[in-house]
């Protein structure tokens, strides 16, 4: 442990599996206290608390697209840890993979609600919590995707939501900076990361498209989130951090 996040309190949405759990692992290692959330993976939430310890980790069930649930998460965070320093908006879904001309409005709205509206509600809740508990200081990290930088042919709704997160981040970072509010907002754009989202039958074909020749690991995203949550990144604001094994090179 290098304690780069010592005395920091972080909320990590979707923080009990995949990329979110990788972020949580890195944050705990660096001395942060964390609140991890998930909507359905209650077993994963219990396992995270058991693994990291109840003194350092709290699990709260949350639908990120529901404003009342954000209020619940903020209230629980402040009650247990006293403040909020970092929000990692990580929770997301990929959609159903259907062509745009066949896609249902229900699928489109579901992806937008979680991936984009969820980030909006999180940003809003975090800014207010940081104003009230942390002298308007903090870091908001929005996990977008390489698909937020270039179109993903098989998932137009996913690309639209992640591109929306990218531009929302730019706009909010500018708004806060211009008003003299020292809350930084940045995006992280993962490429292909080794999680259960990748179908086994597509793994080899995907790896062939990655210049470095292998899939990333969840902690690869965790490490950049440590940097963005720490004071080391105090001059990074409204920026994009692409972690993709060279795909966008």
Would you summarize the structure shown here?
This protein is an alpha/beta fold and 249 residues long. The chain has helices at residues 18-29, 42-52, 67-81, 105-133, 156-178, 203-208, 218-229; strands at 9-13, 33-38, 57-61, 86-89, 138-143, 183-190, 240-243.
Folded structure, characterized:
The chain has helices at residues 18-29, 42-52, 67-81, 105-133, 156-178, 203-208, 218-229; strands at 9-13, 33-38, 57-61, 86-89, 138-143, 183-190, 240-243. It is an alpha/beta fold and 249 residues long. The chain has a single domain (9-240), classed as 3-Layer(aba) Sandwich (Rossmann fold). A seven-stranded parallel sheet has the order 3-2-1-4-5-6-7, with helices on both faces. Keywords: Oxidoreductase. Belongs to the short-chain dehydrogenases/reductases (SDR) family. Pfam families: adh_short_C2.
Our estimate of the beta-strand percent is 15-25%
CATH architecture: 3-Layer(aba) Sandwich
- Radius of gyration from CA coordinates: 17 Å
Q: What is the N-to-C succession of helices and strands? A: EHEHEHEHEHEHHE
Structural class: alpha/beta
At CATH level 3, the topology is Rossmann fold
Note the overall shape: globular
The pLDDT mean sits at 97
Q: Count the beta strands.
A: 7
The fourth-level CATH homologous superfamily is: NAD(P)-binding Rossmann-like Domain
- Helix % is 40-55%
End-to-end separation in angstroms reads 32 Å
Spatially, the strands of the biggest sheet line up as 3-2-1-4-5-6-7
- DSSP helix count? 7
The CATH class designation is Alpha Beta
Could you describe the largest sheet, including whether it forms a barrel? 7 strands, parallel
Low-confidence stretches: none
